[in-house]
Amino acid sequence: MDSPSTCDENSETDFHPSPEDELDRSNADIGFSSSIDRTLSSVSSFSERSNEQSSYYSHNKLSPMCKLAGRASPVLNKLSMKQHVDRKPADYELEVIKEKFSKLLLGEDMSGSGKGVCAAVAISNAITNLYATVFGSCHRLEPLPLEKKSMWRREMDCLLSVCDYIVEFFPSSQAMPDGTTLEVMATRPRSDIYINLPALEKLDAMLIEILDSFRKTEFWYLDEGKQSFNGSSKSFRRVTHRNEDKWWLPVPCIPDTGLPETARKELQQKRDCANQIHKAAMAINSGILVEMEVPDSYLAALPKSGRTSVGDAIYRYMSTPDQFSPDNLLDCLAISTEHEALETADHVEAAMYVWRRKASMSHSKSSWDMVKDLMADGDKNVLLASRAESLLLCLKQRFPSLSQTTLDTSKIQYNKDVGQAILESYSRVLESLAYNIVSWIDEVLFVDESAKTRQD
């Protein structure tokens, strides 16, 4: 058996950052070893800063733009020509930043003819593409390469700096030198950005910290391509629970005696932390998607009947006067694959909006028609819509890695709110990274459990 491959033991203190890297936020004080309660309390603490927020606003009443508390100055200002002349950054990095922001301004339309996407979709695609560039080739538990980590932090800092200028106005008063008081309109960060963006940055730093912790491990990986002339990789693959369509991914390997108990406990602790981060990012993403407007194109494509959308079997179970149980309905459906789950979610979500629309139309009738039909049709549509919503929620809980539904993709495609686009895409990529870390840890734990079972 091959000996465990050694990881790069160079610490981040030996790395001398470039001038652009000095703009990165300092989140190094966050560790994976924090308890789950501390993890959740760290995320929720951003919504409890009312006293700090009020003092911050009172100190910056006349500032045209209020930045988020604790965030660095906008990178766009630090990339001005004067800063470039003084600091003299690398020409290559400057050209890369120019190219990326030029594409954003053009809406991904290189012809310049104005046929590009809106700014919200452009910046959402930019965050998604950056995640694919940095983390797309990561398939194992190991520290992120320094160049990729620097790229992630530097370019995300540029993309998130847009949020420093997304503000809302609120009435305020200002005391003049002569003793008079004037009514003025001050600015403050928009509430959804002020609450969610710092939480997402915290989750981002914690995920990077978890990956950085896998420097000296008791397990290692075998690449299928490099081990094609012996049977070692195939023997390890037989004990993993990975699908055969992912044969090209590296295989986790452990010593014959299995992992030490301390290493296994540490892995389980990191898994629990990453799982909590996954749930937090998923909750933020779901909340942002709910706040997005439903596109008119989606409403126009809805079927005329909710029963037609879900089918007769599901409709009969949902319309029963007895107590409704979404878990029992899903057990009867016996959904086995994520493809079937996504198809069912699309049908249930479409039927939910059909019943909601019919319920609103019944309430808009005349008073006599309302009295006559409210109990017959209106309440029934409300009941069906409520049951469809609970069924959809239960389905997403059973399949946490479920892809976005047709409604979600339509909202992202036609969304024009830049702030919501940044929060949605940022939470979506963090949710994906957290889920991958949990899956990688599960593979190692599964191999360890299989090895101990063979010994017994």
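Next protein, fold it too.
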Amino acid sequence: MITLLSTIFSILGIIQFVLGNFADGFIALVNCIDWVKRQKISSTDGIVTAVAVSRIVLLYVMVIHWYLILLNPALYSLKVRTIVHVAWTITNHYSTWLATSLSIFYLLKIANFSSRTFLHLKLRVKSVVLMMLLGASFILVLQVVVISVSGTMQRSEYEGNFTQKTKLRDILWLSHVTLFILGNLIPFTMSLTSFLLLIFSLWKHLRKMQLNGKESQDPSTKVHIKAMQAVISFLLLFAFYFLVLIISIWSPKKLHEEPFLLLFPTVEVFYPSVHSFILIWGNRKLTQAFLLFLWQLGCWLKDGR
């Protein structure tokens, strides 16, 4: 039954979905056009484009899940639920880890430390990001295996001792929760560490500038601040998103109550949609292209009157 509450949340969800797809599509389009023109793409643009593409798929998976549980629960069988869960796990994983790799990339490219280890990583920043993504894929494989096994067990008629069956379900559930927390807590910790190290690097830079009697608003300071703003915005949005997901896992009964059934999907869409606009704002090329688009749109609307 369609109620006023479901209508309001549906409208909010659709608006966020449209805006998120627009922002992600805009990022991918601008960077791909620039890639074709220049015949090359920078590491930053490559990571941002990958984040945008993963977010587009993630948003569609979220909307499909929302449609099935809210508007067409008859189609939401155990098999379909497992498929949607696996698709969400994969897209959410890459969306999170690619955004985290952007934080690591900012740290290694912008921060200045005399440590040999840091300098070694700084010279091999592309390899560091690649190895980090490959290492994180191990967690993803384990998550997919656990979800698939759990779904298969629920669909099939399990013969044997009921206690053993319950124990197996408990082990799978505990494994799923553990892997989920690790898969999100590790990138959050890495991004938070990047942010703190950027602050420390900026503090050292400002102190050096003061000792030399130079202006503090130099290009290096501005780059530090810009990177810190991008990282902290991701951290705040991701922390909010992660908290909602944790609540949904530890209180699954809440998801069957109408207010929560409507609220959780709407809140989940908020994080990938809003962060995409922050990525545009934090990239000068994307910001200029976006402002040009808005100006052209304004001219078109003005001429169309």
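About the second fold: Residues 162-211 form the longest helix (50 residues).
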